[in-house]
Each structure stands twice: as C-alpha cells, then as structure tokens.
Amino acid sequence: MTKVAIMGVGLIGGSLALCLKGKPGITVYGYSRNPSQAEKYLKLGVVDEAGTDMGEAVRDADFIFLCGPVSTLEPQLEQLASMPLKPGCIVSDVGSTKASLVACARRLALNGVWFIGGHPMAGSERSGVEAASSHLFENAFYVLTPLPETPEDVYDRLAQLLKHTKAQLIRLDAQAHDEIVGAISHLPHVIAVALVNQIARYNDGNELYRLLAAGGFKDITRIASSDSVIWRDILLNNREVVLKLLDDWNREMEQFRLLLESGDGDGIERRFRDAKAFREQMPERRKGVLTSLYDVYVDVPDHPGVIGEIASAFGERGINLSNIHIMESREEVPGVLRLSFRQETDWQRAIETLKGMGYSVHM
Ligand SMILES: NC(=O)c1ccc[n+]([C@@H]2O[C@H](COP(=O)([O-])OP(=O)(O)OC[C@H]3O[C@@H](n4cnc5c(N)ncnc54)[C@H](O)[C@@H]3O)[C@@H](O)[C@H]2O)c1
Ligand SMILES: O=C(O)C(=O)C[C@]1(C(=O)O)C=C[C@@H](O)C=C1
C-alpha cells in the first residue's frame, strides 16, 4: 500500500485527498491538530484514516503533502526533518509561494527523504474541507519546483501519483514561480480587496452602491471573498515581489488617470483593445470545476419555459450539461444564461443545437 499523508485537509488538501482516495494501492491519512477536524475528515469520507498525532500521520508514509497556510509550511518541514520518516519518502506541499520553502528545504538537507515544492494553479474563494472537490485540479496547471539535485526517478514518482489529479504538471524555478504567480494571482487579489473596500466606504453613505453592484463588479471581485489568513500569509511571504508589482500597478493607474484627464479617447480605446486581445489569447479552457469548464452564453427572452426547452433539447441529443446560471433576468428584458459543460464535444454540440433553435450564443 502507498500511504499518502495530507497535513491540513482544507480546500486544497481535501481536493488532493479526494483525487487519491480509493485509487488502487493508495491509502490516504488526514492530519489535523484539531480532533474535531480529524473526525470531520472521516465523516465526510475525504480520507481513509485521520488523526491528531503528527508522528502517526507521517510514519511509513510514502508521500507527505503539507497543505496548511503558507506560514505553517516551513515550521512543519523543520519538524519533519527531525522525525523518523520512511526512507525515500517524498515530501511536497501545495503552498501558493515557493521560494522561501524551497530555500528552507535546501537548508535542512533532508536525509534519505526528498522535498519537491508544488502548487496546483486552481482554487476558489471558498475554504475548508467542505469545499473540496475531486475535480478541482482537472485540466489546471500544477507547478512542481524540484531542486537541482532531485533525482529524475523521484520526480517521476511524484508525477505518477499526481496523475490522479488530472492536472498538467509544469516544472518551474521557485523564484520564477513567485514572480509570475505574484503577478497573475497575488496582485489581482490585492486589487480585488482594495476595490471592494473602496466601494464599501461609499456604501456607508448610500446603500445603493451594494444594491446596484451587478455582474462586472461581482466578476472582478469574487476573489475578494477568499480566506483572510491564507491570503495574509501569501502576501507576507511574497512581499518583495508584490511590492514591486504594486509600483507597476500604480504607474498603470496613473497613466489611465492622465488619459482621462486629457480626454484622450483614442488612448483609452487602445488600452481596452490591447487588453481584450491579450485576454482572448488566454487558455480559457484550462480551468478547474469550481471556476468554469466549457462555457457558452445564450441570450434568452425572459419567458417561462425557456430553460426547460433548452434542457430537453440537450437531453434528446444526449448532451451533458454540468451547470446552468441565469446571469440576468428581468421582466421584458432579454436575459443571459451561462451553460457549462465538462466535455468539449458536449460544448460544441450544444452550440450547434442552440444556433439551430435560433438562439444567439457567445463563447
Ligand atoms: N485557496 C486557493 O485557491 C489555493 C490554491 C492553491 C494553493 N493554495 C494554498 O493551499 C494551502 C491551503 O489553502 P486552502 O485554500 O486549502 O485553505 P483552507 O483554509 O481550506 O485549508 C487549510 C488547512 O490547513 C489547516 N491549518 C490551519 N492552520 C494550521 C496550522 N497552524 N498548522 C497546520 N495546519 C493548519 C486547516 O485546518 C485546514 O485544514 C495554502 O498554503 C494556500 O496558499 C490555495
Ligand atoms: O479561483 C480562485 O478563487 C483563486 O483565487 C485560485 C488561485 C488564483 O488563481 O489566484 C488562488 C491561489 C492559488 O494559489 C492558485 C489559484
């Protein structure tokens, strides 16, 4: 039996556990410092075994994944370095930052066990084991940061296990990881939070700000609902990178301000065109289940029965719909339905079907 110990079974640790549990030859052990949490892991069926004794959790483990907040990872790795672990055991983590933990692993010079940093590029604003999903990492990138001295067969063993996540593995240097992920994840979280707090201040004087906030505001601020402790740790750990990014952001905002001040319509238009062109090149389909899969947007008249009509047409053709979301629905005003599919083939057939039914669709 291959024993996998998950240290901290929350959104990410729990999703990893669900990807591995029940796979032939694998047993998953969930560790928590808190007995009621360990009981919950078992009750929810996310792990095979659970407990609060770290020694028992890691004893004989073939793989150990550190899945707590970023500030807990280095102390936990230091603790592991002084514990008897199975020779050849691979220790990894799922933390959103990599450089300081990888440096810590190098300093510790683990004896007979290996450390390979990891970071699945999928998640959600939700947290805790209740939010875990076995589909979370599907089609997402999963960064691994092996040390230069990590033997290839050790890397391959971890890669083999992580195949169960259905993610696409990518090797990256830890510092490069922190710079890139700082820009595409940490900076956007700061911006989303600052934006929500700015609007919350206006709302103190007039409740209409919150009431009128619609799709645009909600889309750009979803991640502002993320866990405060998880994000405090990420930002403090990647502080140097995020500080530089904030300087660039301030310059970007200043340029926008100047365009507006001078009434430079062409300049504003150019910025929107450039952003749209870059965004359209992004690999939209590489997403986990908690964000979206293959989406199609349909303009629908607001009359009863339209959802049923579309659902029956899909049912008749064996098209599997995984989610449906009504984005706008007001009397007499056309609404927008977002339909999500897990399979690209279902998505393509749905588009053909909808067009055939006379609906206007957008991808
Ligand atoms: N949320 C995301 O979208 C996301 C995505 C990729 C990676 N990550 C990273 O994954 C890790 C876990 O994040 P999450 O979103 O699953 O958070 P979570 O809050 O859902 O889970 C955190 C887990 O760590 C445990 N924990 C809390 N404090 C601890 C401590 N002091 N010592 C040991 N364990 C402790 C909690 O009991 C919980 O099981 C973080 O390092 C985060 O940076 C998060
Ligand atoms: O989709 C979300 O809610 C996320 O914030 C996921 C997200 C991100 O894309 O920024 C957050 C943190 C990670 O470490 C990886 C992924």
UniProtKB/TrEMBL annotation:
Keywords: Amino-acid biosynthesis, Aromatic amino acid biosynthesis, NAD, Oxidoreductase, Tyrosine biosynthesis
Pfam families tied to this protein: ACT (PF01842), PDH_C (PF20463), PDH_N (PF02153)
Segments passing through the bilayer: none
Catalytic activity from the UniProt record: prephenate + NAD(+) = 3-(4-hydroxyphenyl)pyruvate + CO2 + NADH
Protein name: Prephenate dehydrogenase
SUPFAM superfamilies: 6-phosphogluconate dehydrogenase C-terminal domain-like, ACT-like, NAD(P)-binding Rossmann-fold domains
ACT domain ranges (all copies): 295-363
InterPro entries named among the record's database cross-references: 6-PGluconate_DH-like_C_sf, ACT-like_dom_sf, ACT_dom, NAD(P)-bd_dom_sf, PDH_C, PDH_N, Preph/Arog_dehydrog, Prephen_DH
Pathway, per record: Amino-acid biosynthesis; L-tyrosine biosynthesis; (4-hydroxyphenyl)pyruvate from prephenate (NAD(+) route): step 1/1
